[in-house]
Amino acid sequence: MEKALESAERKARLKDFEIENKEFEHNYNNVSKEELENALKIVSRATGKEAFIGTKKSPQSRIRFAQFLQMNWILLREEKYFSSEEKIFLTDIQPNISMHSNAIVSNIMSKPPSALTIQGLADRLGTSRTKISRIVNSLIKKGVLAKAVSGDIKDVKQAKDYVLFVNPNIIYVGDKEKVDEHLILMFKNQMKSNPILKKLPQKLF
User: How far is residue 181's CA from residue 168's CA, in Å, rounded to a whole number?
Assistant: First the structure.
């Protein structure tokens, strides 16, 4: 009886091994795991460095895009959280949200990027400074935008130099698994204290 069980267990393990190998070959264009491991050993020996499996990035990997967290937008829509002009503003500024920092900048491809001021946003969106200022202030109060001031805030001239950031739980440009710490610090209190934001079904932090 014991020998029969051992035999059945060996057969089961062998079957699992065969399935695993077939899946591997399917994923790597019919190259077996053994062949790939041998190839990596040869490359390691030739270069003196540990080799690993990697693939060349496709042209599509360089495409920039902003991620609207859909389930959160559904809740915010149901709660009528945004005014019509706020929705339009958030849609219009998404091409200007910088990768990872989630800052609103003049050109996402520039290095270093330049922050868009209220006047810059008004010029870019073809509207008045007064209107943009009103929308921005409203979205800051709602925890959707945050303003980081640079320089000495007691200095009136320096206090005008600030950057606007977008709450990544609303719109995010970057890796959702690696939200930058500065964004967490800027928005975590709003996410805890704002009764609407607390209900968001998809939270990155």
Answer: 11
Residues 87, 55: Cα–Cα separation, whole Å:
39
Position 200 scores a pLDDT of 98
Do 83 and 90 contact (CB within 8 A), yes or no? no
Cα distance between residue 74 and residue 78, in whole Å: 6
pLDDT along the chain (205 residues), means of 10: 65 68 68 74 77 58 83 98 98 96 94 92 96 98 90 44 93 94 96 97 96
**What are the backbone angles phi and psi of residue 155, rounded to the nearest 5°?**
-85, 115
**C-alpha–C-alpha distance, residues 30 and 23, integer Å:** 9
89 membership: H or E segment, kind and range: helix 84-93
The phi and psi torsions of 191 (rounded to 5 degrees) equal -65, -25
61-199: CATH, from 3.30.200.20, 1.10.10.10, 3.40.50.720, 1.10.3720.10: 1.10.10.10
Nearest to 52 by CA among 36, 64, 32, 67: 36
Q: Are strands 171-172 and 162-166 parallel, antiparallel or unpaired?
A: unpaired
Cβ-based neighbours of 132, under 8 Å, separated by 6 or more: 89, 118, 121, 122, 125
Joined together, the tokens standing for residue 149 give 């001031």
